[in-house]
Design a protein that fits this description.
single chain; globular
Length: 93
């Protein structure tokens, strides 16, 4: 079972952490749902919050814009990830 690290305080921070540390800045909804164990609907809500914060870019399906193909970190999200990495005690790569 996957457990959210202690230095992560919100589901949104966890998504940023996963995107930056495990998924090389880009992941599908399914990948995030599998890793976080949150429901698909909750994960989409968290991603919506990150999108409004301008931390992620949501790549929508060409044929149906309600379908999210993938989520990627943008510069503000990368800064958030670096802050989380500092909080975790990991050194920059």
């Amino acid at each position: 079972m996957f457990i959210m690290p202690d230095f992560i305080h919100t589901p949104e921070e966890w998504i940023v952490w996963l995107l930056g540390s495990e998924f090389h800045n880009n992941a599908t909804i399914e990948m995030l749902v599998q890793r976080t164990r949150h429901s698909r609907e909750d994960t989409i809500t968290f991603i919506g919050t990150l999108e409004r914060m301008k931390a992620v870019r949501v790549n929508r399906n060409v044929r149906n814009a309600t379908i999210i193909d993938s989520v990627a970190l943008v510069p503000n999200g990368v800064r958030m990830f670096e802050e989380l990495r500092h909080r975790s005690g990991q050194s920059p790569q």
